[in-house]
Write a structure and sequence with these properties.
single chain; alpha/beta; Rossmann fold; Mannitol-specific EII, Chain A; four-stranded parallel sheet; four-stranded mixed sheet; 24 helices; 8 strands; about 10% strand; EC 2.7.1.197; PTS_IIC_mtl; sugar transport; kinase; transmembrane
């Protein structure tokens, strides 16, 4: 039975993640529409009929098209996004209500169809015809999808929307809206995503707001009061780590609007969900009593963001409702904590681990490795992104922690939080929870990926900063200790091996560079005819170079190098365009056999170091 429940929760999480993944990247556009509505509608702060004409077109065309594009892109990249947006127009034009649910259907559906069609043509297109086939296959498929959306999906969604809206209206008419939080609050903690707010309440709320100018549905989930009340109860009546950390999380939750960090405080003591429910229901009664609502969804759910999309007539009752939610949640939470006054220093860490494992179920992730040993040697790191499903919640907390540590270390790097589908192409390092790393690697395979087991307290952050500091201090091209006097060598292969090992030991190259040096020697011998050889890798081996470096061997007894006896060996690893300049410098400086002879006879490490570094 337990496995069935876990599987059901995971399926719900995945479905919710798909819904919220279509809306979350477009929250900025929703807020733009909401603010325009709040300010310029005839009941707004600054009524303006001319500007208010923007409200309906944005609601009917812009926002659903963005959702359709994002839904398609999440399933099949830019190509899926384009066909998803085109197909969404079919449900938009064929209906007289905002088609958010229609967009959530058509975006992914169109992308999946496009992907199937592309597979039919894969490997069958003659060279030179790729563009015309790709464009026309998308265009022709688009016709069928738009017509299907116009004649079938649109009417179906209208009926579905009417049924759901009628159900919501029944709940509202019977004064039962406050009790919706009996389901919303546990679902927030268990599903760990924004599916309820952005996938269900948001679309229904927008339909109501289009008619009435506001909707109470927009405030049911974002209200920060219940979570803040729970955290304040832990602050005053908790024990151990929970008591110490709750104040900071409360501030982040209240004013930053990030809900996820307070979930472990409920998971560690499940009876605290009663405090959250009681607080939410109490606030909802205030909202209902005064007919409150928001003009758009509030995201993230902070005190400030809720007020930002509230009509001016509702400010005071909304503030009162949020404060009542906080007070009731605090009172009930305090009572529960006083009754259950057991102390467990490890309880919070166990709860965080439980939350992360639940999240892994919902994302389909497993424990996989990225960079087990962090190594940025030879890399230019400018952008480090902490990524999760929605780009909020725990990843925002993780990015804040990492950014602060990087700032204290004096590192000039960009640290941001982002949703995995929105990782930019030029990101250098991606930090994700270990359950999400596989997804992130599929999204940006060229980046360096680092897994953490806990966004909030991972020791990996200190390791990342330490390695970034090392990488920002480049290795010298030549270290004096990498000039060695070896009286006898058996072969040139032994010499190359010693050179490669010195470069490898100090982090100039990877293990594969030695093979590149040996391959170059087979293709083109590197002895110069003056008693000196300059072994280096083939062009393909440049990917094995982390940082430009030199290592040298003085061999008084000489070593046979093809048909010549070589007594000075200078191994080179040149990163980027430095390879030729290093070769040129060595050749010009030591082009005379007399110069080589003198260094070898004197076994003069200091002189050779001076020559190679001047």
């Amino acid at each position: 039975m337990g496995n069935e429940a876990t599987g059901f929760r995971a399926r719900i999480q995945k479905f919710g993640g798909v819904l919220s993944g279509m809306v979350m990247p477009n929250i900025g556009a929703f807020i733009t529409w909401g603010l325009i509505t709040a300010m310029f509608l005839k009941t707004g702060w600054f009524p303006n009929e001319k500007i208010a004409v923007l409200i309906d077109p944005m609601l009917k065309y812009l926002l659903p098209t963005l959702i359709g594009y994002t839904g398609g892109k999440n399933f099949y990249g830019d190509r899926g996004g384009v066909i998803g947006a085109a197909a969404t127009m079919g449900v938009i034009v064929g209906s007289d209500i905002p088609m958010f649910m229609g967009a959530m259907i058509m975006g992914p559906l169109a992308a999946i169809c496009m992907k199937r069609v592309d597979r039919l043509f894969e490997g069958r297109i003659k060279p030179g015809f790729e563009m015309i086939v790709n464009n026309f296959s998308c265009g022709i498929l688009g016709i069928f999808l738009v017509l299907a959306a116009f004649f079938a999906i649109g009417p179906f969604v209208q009926v579905l929307n009417h049924v759901m809206s009628s159900g919501v209206n029944v709940i509202i008419d019977h004064g039962l809206t406050p009790f919706a939080s009996v389901f919303i609050e546990p679902a927030k903690v268990l599903f760990l995503n924004n599916a309820i707010n952005h996938g269900i309440l948001g679309p229904l709320g927008i339909t109501q707001a289009a008619e009435a100018g506001k909707s109470i549905l927009f405030i049911l989930e974002p209200n920060p009061g219940p979570g803040v009340g729970v955290l304040l109860a832990y602050t005053f009546f908790g024990t151990g780590t929970a008591k110490k950390t709750a104040p900071g999380v409360a501030i982040i939750h209240a004013f930053g609007g990030i809900h996820e960090p307070y979930f472990p405080y409920i998971l560690m003591k499940p009876q605290m969900i009663l405090a959250s429910i009681c607080g939410a229901v109490s606030g909802n009664f205030i909202f209902q009593m005064f007919g409150c609502g928001l003009v758009a969804t509030a995201s993230p759910g902070s005190y400030f963001s809720v007020l930002a999309v509230a009509p001016k007539s509702d400010y005071l009752p909304i503030i009162a409702g949020m404060l009542v939610s906080t007070a009731v949640s605090f009172a009930v939470g305090a009572f529960i904590l006083r009754l259950c006054h057991d102390s467990d220093e490890e309880a919070l860490q166990k709860a965080v681990a439980k939350k992360d494992s639940m999240k892994a179920e919902g994302t389909g992730g497993g424990l996989i490795g990225a960079q087990e040993v962090i190594d940025f040697t030879g890399k230019v790191i400018k952008k480090v992104y902490v990524a999760c499903d929605a780009g909020m919640g725990s990843s925002a907390m993780g990015a804040s922690i990492l950014k602060d540590k990087a700032k204290q270390a004096g590192l000039d790097i960009e640290v941001k939080n982002v949703a995995i589908p929105n990782l930019p192409e030029d990101v250098d390092v991606v930090v994700t929870h270990e359950s999400l790393t596989e997804r992130a690697m599929r999204e940006r395979p060229e980046a360096i990926h680092i897994s953490v087991d806990n966004f909030l307290s991972s020791p990996k952050y200190d390791e990342i900063v330490s390695k970034l500091k090392q990488a920002s201090s480049p290795l010298p091209v030549l270290k004096k200790e990498n000039i060695k006097v070896i009286h006898k060598l058996n072969s040139k292969e032994d010499a190359i091996h010693m050179i490669a090992q010195m470069l490898l030991k100090d982090g100039y190259v990877t293990e594969g560079y030695e093979e590149g040096m040996l391959l170059r020697e087979k293709e083109t011998p590197t002895n110069l005819g003056n008693g000196m050889a300059i072994p280096h890798g083939v062009l393909e081996a440049k990917k094995e170079i982390k940082s430009s470096g030199i290592a040298a061997l003085i061999v008084p007894d000489g070593v046979l190098w093809n048909d010549e006896t070589v007594r000075l060996i200078i191994g080179i690893a040149g990163a980027d365009q430095e390879h030729l300049s290093i070769l040129s410098n060595v050749a010009l400086t030591l082009n005379q056999e007399e110069a080589v002879q003198k260094i070898v006879d004197d076994q003069d490490v200091e002189e050779l170091y001076h020559i190679l570094t001047k």
